[in-house]
Design brief:
With 69 residues, this protein is mostly beta strands. It has no helices and eight strands.
């Protein structure tokens, strides 16, 4: 099954994506602002989630809040 972003574009390992909405990160006192570019995502076994590195930590984001750059 293909992993797709909010616009329907297919995502691959190592792609760069942009956040489409301000997101509060659970367990951290951090907010990802709209328009933040995230580099080198990794796909997971779930097509609705991707792993990425933000700062020094790794987080899992839902693909419905991302768009391919």
């Amino acid at each position: 099954m293909d992993t797709k972003d909010s616009n329907g574009n297919v995502l691959n390992d190592g792609d760069n994506v942009q956040v489409t909405k301000d997101l509060k990160v659970k367990g951290a006192s951090m907010t990802l602002k709209r328009g933040t570019t995230i580099k080198k995502i990794r796909l997971t076994s779930n097509p609705e989630h991707v792993e990425c590195r933000v700062g020094k930590g790794q987080i899992v984001l839902k693909t419905c809040f991302l768009k391919k750059v």
